[in-house]
Amino acid sequence: MKERKRVGIVTTWFERGAAYVSRQYKALLEEDYDVFIFARGGEEYAIGDPKWDGPHVTWATPCRIQVTMSINLDEFQAWIRANQLDIVFFNEQHWWPAVLAANETDAITGSYVDYYTEETVPFFHSFDFLICNTQRHFSVFKDHPGARYIPWGTDVDLFTPSSSGLVDPARITFFHSGGVSPHRKGCDAVIEAFSRLSGPCSLVIHAQRDLKKHFPALADTIRQLESDGRLVCHERTVSAPGLFHLGDVYVYPTRLEGIGLTIMEAAACGLPVIVTDTGPMNEFIEDGENGSLVKVERFERRSDNYYWPQAFCDLDDLTAKMQWYVDHMQDIGPMKQRARAVAERRFDWGKQKGEICRAFGQVSKKPESAALTKAIRAFEARRGGLKAPSAAYTQFHGWARKNHPRFFEMCSALMAVLKTMKPGVKA
Q1: Is the bond into 241 cis (omega within 30 degrees of 0)?
Q2: Which of 84, 86, 118, 354 is deepest in the core (most CB within 10 A)?
Q3: Strand positions, DSSP E, 145-295
Q4: How far is Cα 412 from Cα 415, in angstroms, rounded to an integer?
Q5: pTM for the model
């Protein structure tokens, strides 16, 4: 019998959407491959959490380089070689020296596509293969010889409907997930549009931020809606399948998405989905079938020069789309059933197993390009991405992580916060 190939996934690895992408890849691959996780530092750690920790997980030592997703390269290459990896698969790797370091080994390198700018698009040719989970991503990378378009999906056995009727028989309940990025996900637009609605309706918001502090201009509106019993905010982390069961309609006028995981999760839970009418959101919603599309008022380039601009929805159209569901609440049962049916037909990630395994099984290592490597190093040098951590720093963090994990996690969390603070702002 042929020995199983070994795949290493380089990823964020804690309760976060990006980590769930890696979990879904792992779930499909591990029937045919031995899968290992290299849990990048710099954000949070789930050391000791049985949902995330295990013998297949290597918790990376935090790296002092002030660029997101930086990695101690000696430790990283040692992990590749120790596990005799055939393929190293990156989850939206923003720091390019890690990709170059993986290419120096015998492993084939690949990535799922999520984050890129005009300047970094050519750098993706340093990967041997790419997986694009949306048509929008594939439109940018279709000329890459190893690029494949494999539509995204979700676990339709985990995300399931709780009821085909109204959560509250007396009203329609809208649900919105703001996560850790409420502004990007259009949480403020949801609150403003909902405050204009008439008729029996309520709103439930799940976010990992204090919304009154995050949107100070809306603090009074939030308090009034809460006081009236029309708004409930859950400001905490909740594991999958989340809180979709609290709503009848998922309203998600997000301004920018790499994939838009919650769109498919909500649909699988039987919720019609209201989304912004631009890619990739409108790739998953059929207007009038499993949800509604909201007109875009304007596009704006994001400050980090992400390749695609932010799309700000038309607030009047969002209000009208939400009001339609209030006015047709008697039809919510068939709407929920259609949303689930579309999810079963189009969003079942398990059905992509063959495509994913073929994508990993049919790749080969291609020669490195000296010109591309030079361009990547020049890019990293300009933004300070080549400064290596001292040996003493690396040794201390390795010791703290092993011997005092809780202290280690607290310090890592503090450093993550400090990195986000602007110069001159006191802690």
Answers
A1: yes
A2: 86
A3: 147-149, 172-179, 201-207, 231-235, 249-252, 273-276, 291-294
A4: 5
A5: 0.86
CB under 8 Å to 188, separation ≥6 — which residues?
Answer: 182, 215, 218
Q: Which of 412, 417, 414, 376 is nearest to 63 (CA)?
A: 412
Measured distance CA(237)–CA(252) in Å, rounded: 18
pLDDT digits (tens, 9 = 90+) for 27-83: 999 989 999 999 997 667 889 999 999 999 999 987 767 678 888 999 999 999 999
Owner of token pair 């400090």: 418
CA atoms within 13 A on the CB side of 19: 20
* Residue with tokens 């009418």, as numbered in its chain: 277
* Residue type, position 345, single letter: R
What are the φ and ψ backbone dihedral angles of 128, each rounded to 5 degrees?
-75, -30
Residues 292/317, Cβ–Cβ less than 8 Å: no
Distance from chain centroid for Cα 380: 24
Burial status of residue 232 (CB atoms within 10 A of its CB: 0-12, 13-18, 19 or more): middle
Alpha carbon 266 to chain centroid, angstroms: 15
Residue 199 CB: number of other CB atoms within 10 A?
11
Can you name the residues that pair with 273 across neighbouring β-strands? 250, 291
Q: Please name which of 292, 295, 297, 296 lies closest in space to residue 326, comparing C-alpha atoms.
A: 292
* Residue 118: count of CB within 10 angstroms of its CB: 10
**What's the one-letter identity of residue 69?**
M
